Amino acid sequence: MSISAIWQQAWEKFKNGNWVIGVVLIVLTVFLSFVPFVGIFFSYLLGVCLSYYGLQVWRSDSPVDFRSVFPPIMAFLKILLGSILLAVIPGLIILISAYDFVMDIIGIARVAQEVSSEPEVHLKGDTFAQSLKPNFLLMGIGFLAAVILNVLFYFYSYFILERNEGVLASFQESFALFSQVPGKVILFLLTQMLVILLGILACGVGLLIAYPVSAIASAGFYMSHRPEPSSPQLTLA
Question: Which of 75, 79, 64 is nearest to 19 (CA)?
């Protein structure tokens, strides 16, 4: 199925009685994100529910009910573990770069203090700039690593939600899917970013539509390109 056909079908399914649940999930996610301490965690869980909502809507020819968008608790735990694993390497790189950057800032502050007390001491701005460049470079490498890993393993959560795969197995399956159609995956993700950007430009209100439709389209891309399971392990309503 072409990318344009996936988006068109996702839009039709969203309009076909499934828009209410999608909007409610987004509103709840935004609302819970402002709750201190635990808000981000519950927003993450609702993000998983949004992916499951996309699968349910894509698989069904009739509107889904609200109870069907909550996956089993083990799926939550597996996806959470997968997210942590994907964040380990980029997180370490960014933390190291941030530590070095903070140390450089402290060094600059100390020299500035010496300058204020000893006028004959002169600062060399170009020297400080050169010392900061490697830190920003390392931080950029960390963010680039995060982007690459999330593209390569973008569909891992769907293998968990649909087939109840293990975390490592879902990574392997997701990478295999990407390897089959890498250009198409990247193009789809770019169109997904464009749709979300358009939702943001529409005074942010457009995200109430953009995010649910995007979730359905992501599930549709996965369903259209994943290898057929040898035996279904998780039945979707």
Answer: 64
Task: Say how far apart CA 23 and CA 79 lie, in whole Å.
Answer: 23
DSSP single-letter state for residue 228: P
Tokens of 34: 């402002």
Closest listed residue to residue 52, CA positions, set 157, 134, 165: 157
pLDDT at residue 148 above 90? yes
The pLDDT of residue 123 is above 80: no
Q: Across the chain, how many H-helices and E-strands are there?
A: 9, 0
The count of residues in the chain is: 237
Dist CA 200 CA 76 (whole Å): 28
Q: Is the dihedral of CA 142, 52, 19, 30 positive or negative?
A: negative
**Which residue is listed with tokens 């995010």?**
211
pLDDT digits (tens, 9 = 90+) for 157-207: 999 999 999 999 999 999 999 999 999 999 999 999 999 999 888 877 889
> Residue 61, exposed/middle/buried by CB under 10 A (0-12, 13-18, 19+)?
exposed
DSSP string, 45-75: HHHHHHHHHHHHHHH-SSPPPGGGG---HHH
Residue whose pair of structure tokens reads 């390569």 in the numeric block? 152
Predicted local distance difference test score (pLDDT) of residue 109: 66
Query: What's the pLDDT score for residue 90?
Result: 87
Neighbours of 78 (CB within 10 A): 23
